[in-house]
Amino acid sequence: MQKQCKIQRVATSPAREVAYPAVMCALLIGGQYVFSFVAGVEIVTVLLLSFCYVFGARRGAICAIAFSILRCLLFGFYPTVIVLYLIYYPLFALFYGVLGRLKSQAFASKTMAAAVNILLFALAIAAVILYATDAIKVAKSYKLTVNILLWVIAAACAAMALVYDGALIYGRTKNTAALARVIAVAATAAVWTAAFTLLDDVITPLFLGYTRLTALAYFYSSFTAMLPQTVCAVITVCTLFTPICNVLERVKGY
Amino acid sequence: MKKYLLTVSAVIFAVLALFCGCNGGTVKKTYINDDTGIIIVPDKDYDSLADYILVLKDGGKLDVEYTMGAYGMFITAIDGKANEVTSSTATAMSGYSWTIYIDFVTLDGVIYGQDSKICDYKGKTLYSANYGASALPCIAGHTYALVYESYSYEF
Fold first, then answer.
1. CA geometry: angle at A146 spanning A143 and A150, to 5°?
2. Which of A39, A78, A210 minimises the CB distance to B116?
3. Which ipTM value was assigned to this complex?
């Protein structure tokens, strides 16, 4: 005789459905405003990806769209920025919402290990090649900073790959999967952060009708924002992703 | 007597040359495309245009006000003419601001000037600078223009 288990789904109340993205949206706007005074530092990436990871793609996308529009009240209504945000953040929410559905053990699987290693290796190699070929043509006053940041990114990726592989090879504790998860998420956050600037390098010149030379200058100078933000994203995700997720899991559980 | 006069003249010219060298180059107030403009031509190289502007300010040749931010010097006023926003709504913004123009587009592979935003000064094409004064190289003989121009954006 087979036992039939009835799974009772407890629906989230409409008030909570509105409150979760609304509160996170307020936190994102507050976080962006506070750090807007410090060049290259931002906390939106880690906050939003943690929210999407715990609460899923749908709520993450709602929060992302609300954030993209409401932040304009503080920072101004610039069409290029609105378009950029409305393309980037819903995709970002979808990605981390899907990633959040993976079981913790999946981050220590062979497939994930291969993907994370390839990602980190590609990022490190890209940073070294950009440095070695002197490909980023920016003003002399920015050159040293750009070169240092390229090395920081290459070193951070190498360190993360070492820790990730070391944890998978020698790790015997249940924390191994958690550590692997943090590094996998940090690696993808670095790629998403770089992609944000690269997307802007396409949207803004197209929207404003830049000439080829002006678009190229815009592309080169965007690295002065992209590199520190990428470093910042890696650091904030490595340090804050797990505690924020723990807090959000508790909020979700109430 | 003749030898004495020559020596005195040489000393006077040397002191004058030294004095001019300390203040550096020429600063000329003019109009560029009907906008108030200041043409600057340095007589020697400086690390950046901002450094040279500070030399001119200290020498009393340029009455400039500025703030220093994450991207270096930001010019807020020259000769009492300050940046101002005349209108700001959710869909439009207009006002006046000091803009830097330079007479070169690229230098050592770096794109410093915008070929899409130009102005003309005595038959010479000047390009709107992609960088602020702190990141622009200041090279002897090149022409730099600070132009108080109006802007208007519609979103």
1. 140
2. A210
3. 0.72
